[in-house]
Amino acid sequence: MKYQNVDLASHRSQLHTQLIQAQGIYSQRSRAVKYTKRGLFLESLIYYQKYVLNPLVDVLRLIHTPSQADCYLVHASRDFPIEVVLTLEKLYGVKTVQDIIEGINLADELFCNAVAEADFMLSQTY
Fold this sequence. Notes:
Shape: elongated
Low-confidence stretches: none
Number of domains: 1
Radius of gyration: 16 Å
Largest sheet: none
Structural class: mainly alpha
Helix content: over 70%
């Protein structure tokens, strides 16, 4: 493996693109909501993971491990603060449609706050 110096401007641009993509994916969370209203667990689950949890984790990565922003949940228990880990465990530990509804409600607040924090972080010189 060859180590290279990181072009900070390019890296920040990549992180900003990742943030915008996460927001675009999260904007489709209504797909998960639709299936929870129909009471369909499996369909709710797949859309919950794809349109709610995945983009949330992407934004959390931007905040907590910007140099490894593409690692998704790999080493998440090590890389994230314990309160974030416990919250993610709760969000992923769904067993019913009601759990997914509650997870979406919690994720909405977390996602909004995380986007604001990531946006602020990316606007600073790092």
